[in-house]
């Protein structure tokens, strides 16, 4: 059966006190596009609601007019998304929203949160015993305050049954695209990604930080920062220490010393992690791409080289990694992230 032939879904986004505008606007734009591209799958427009209605001011100062949460009939909702932001983890300031979620959340077919919106779901008891994530800055705090929640600190987004939580900010777009794919099919989700000029539709099993972003955040050296960006664009090439040193204008010994000092790992280990990051992305985002092609694109040369890299770092074969993701997607749930060794 065509997924878009199901009954139209009514979606609402809750705008709590202290939200960040992009946590709301990202999913809102995804679902609005979905309503136009798959009108049989979605009831339009998406409702934006808040306690008491009226004006909600985002952390950036942007003011938004929202409908009253109290006027929402839970029986008409298929999905409620709780937006987050730097002030949303203040549960006391959002006590009325938490109370509404506690009363009506268990009966909703699907709940989602972006960033610190997970705090409101947790405060309402909706995440007890569930896997969940939030923005990397708040994962430790979420785990401390709500020990019954199984926090996954490095996941881009996590699906556990009918509850979906996203890391934060642009990860809300990734989560919304995954929900659209489950509702209306992959073609619709990819078309929305193109319309929004999203470079990649990142799967939830991907980490919040790529190897390149983690590295760039740790160095003050412009040469090393440029080298990390260059590596990402040349994964299929010669990335030996000698080649990297030549690109950076250093001796191999100086490069190895400075790279290890700034990044806490050798150039060789970094290259291996960057190649593995890209291989994981290709396996999940291009499910029909042959393993040999994936291997060639990331510089692992052969399918066997790809298998060895996966087994060595992740303890799972690339075929199994891809198959687990495909199975979970058919069930409407994302593959749990595999922790690097």
From TrEMBL:
PROSITE patterns: HTH_ARAC_FAMILY_1, HTH_ARAC_FAMILY_2. CDD domains: GATase1_AraC_1. It comes from the Bacteria. Keywords: DNA-binding, Transcription, Transcription regulation. Residues 225-324 form the HTH araC/xylS-type domain. SUPFAM superfamilies: Class I glutamine amidotransferase-like, Homeodomain-like. InterPro entries: Class_I_gatase-like (IPR029062), DJ-1/PfpI (IPR002818), Homeodomain-like_sf (IPR009057), HTH_AraC (IPR018060), HTH_AraC-typ_CS (IPR018062), INH-QAR (IPR052158). GO terms for molecular function: DNA-binding transcription factor activity; sequence-specific DNA binding. This is Transcriptional regulator, AraC family with amidase-like domain.
């Amino acid at each position: 059966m065509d997924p878009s032939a199901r009954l139209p879904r009514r979606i609402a986004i809750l705008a709590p006190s202290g939200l960040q505008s992009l946590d709301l606007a990202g999913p809102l734009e995804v679902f609005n596009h979905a309503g136009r591209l798959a009108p049989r799958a979605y009831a339009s427009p998406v409702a934006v609601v808040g306690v008491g209605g009226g004006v909600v001011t985002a952390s950036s100062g942007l003011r938004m007019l929202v409908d009253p949460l109290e006027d929402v009939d839970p029986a008409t909702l298929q999905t409620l998304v709780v937006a987050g932001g730097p002030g949303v983890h203040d549960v006391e300031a959002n006590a009325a929203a938490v109370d509404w979620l506690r009363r009506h959340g268990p009966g909703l077919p699907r709940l989602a949160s972006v960033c610190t919106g997970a705090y409101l779901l947790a405060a309402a008891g909706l995440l007890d015993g569930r896997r969940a994530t939030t923005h990397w800055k708040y994962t430790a705090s979420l785990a401390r305050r709500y020990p019954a929640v199984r926090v996954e600190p490095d996941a881009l987004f996590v699906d556990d049954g009918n509850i979906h939580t996203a890391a934060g900010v642009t990860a809300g777009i990734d989560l919304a695209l995954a929900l659209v794919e489950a509702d209306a099919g992959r073609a619709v989700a990819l078309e929305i990604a193109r319309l929004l000029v999203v470079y990649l539709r990142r799967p939830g099993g991907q980490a919040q930080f790529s190897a390149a972003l983690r590295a760039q955040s740790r160095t003050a050296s412009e040469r090393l920062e440029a080298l990390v960006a260059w590596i990402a664009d040349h994964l299929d090439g010669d990335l030996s220490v000698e080649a990297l040193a030549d690109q950076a204008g250093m001796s191999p010994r100086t490069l190895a010393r400075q790279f290890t000092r700034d990044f806490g790992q050798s150039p060789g280990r970094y290259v291996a992690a960057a190649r593995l990051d890209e291989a994981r992305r290709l396996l999940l985002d291009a499910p029909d791409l042959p393993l040999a092609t994936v291997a060639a694109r990331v510089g692992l040369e052969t399918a066997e080289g790809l298998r060895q890299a996966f087994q060595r770092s992740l303890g799972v074969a690339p075929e199994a990694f891809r198959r687990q993701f495909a199975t979970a997607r058919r069930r409407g749930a994302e593959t749990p992230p595999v922790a690097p060794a």
